[in-house]
Amino acid sequence: MTYAFEKYHGTANDFIILDIRNHAIPDDPDIISQLCDRHTGIGADGVIFLEDSALYDFKMRYFNADGNEGSMCGNGGRCISAFAHKHCLISDNTTFEAIDGKHHAEILEINGDEYLVRLDMRDVRPAKWEDGSIFLDTGSPHLVKQCKNLSSCDVVSEGREIRYSARFSPGGTNVNFIELVDGVLHVRTYERGVENETLSCGTGVAAAAISQAIGYGAESPLEVKTLGGMLKVSFKKTDREFTDIKLEGAAKFVFSGQIEI
Q1: What is the pLDDT of residues 99-136, one digit of tens each?
Q2: I need a surface site. Which of 110, 163, 203, 218 has the fewest CB within 10 A?
Q3: In the 3-class helix/strand/coil scheme, how is 93-135 assigned residue by residue?
């Protein structure tokens, strides 16, 4: 069967989006990983299904490039909101369902094929910095680790070692390497499920920003630089948790097509 798809990216974190409300696609890991293959498929960091929701505007299901269903994807949430707006499924505001619960998103600006989207993230419980790292759950699990000279850091080798370490077994974790340079927080991320460095990770950026608030008293909002571009994270802090966490940045339509599955 032939399916229509669209390709989007959020600060170079790229996704294949399919509206499957009227025609289901098997969530077979082999099919998903083939779609994501950059040599023999469409090529992407992940696949997103837009499905019907009984409670909200739509349901988002996210699959990693390895074919397995993943946890929350912040950049993917912004991209599917842009997709839904482009196809007149939502107005400038939407509430949708994801694996970690409901999310609200707002389309702030539209410039051609680029959408500026602000996405509400789940509340986060604080943790402690230990030996230069901190573990936070922002809808996906993230270890945030300080790194001197981030540009030369071996993100893939070190990230993979931590991701598969006994400490995070059996599910593993994403690993973010951070460095503050001239007042700007830089982040590079090894993503589980992609099993490689991605050019941006929305939930990782949120974790990195909150790590600075915990360890160094950084105030909201924070701008965070990834290899794929800039994102902004805002939040409120209480004695028990971080609330009203918002991830803001561009989500861009790349191309559309059809593929036989």
Answers
A1: 999 999 999 999 999 999 999 999 999 999 999 999 99
A2: 110
A3: EEEEEECCEEEEEEEEEEECCEEEEEEECCCECCCCCECCEEE
Catalytic residue among 79, 147, 153, 201: 201
Neighbours of 108 (CB within 10 A): 11
Give the residues across from 178 on adjacent strands: 146, 187
For the record, the structure tokens of 97 come out as 């369902």
pTM of the model: 0.97
* 201 is known as an active-site residue: yes
Delineate the domains of the chain, giving CATH numbers in brackets: 2-120+250-260 (3.10.310.10), 133-249 (3.10.310.10)
| pLDDT tens by residue, 132-158 | 999 999 999 999 999 999 999 999 999
Instruction: Say which of 73, 79, 147, 153 is annotated catalytic.
Output: 73
Q: 157: number of CA atoms within 13 Å, CB side? A: 3
Helices (H) and strands (E) in the chain, counts: 4, 15
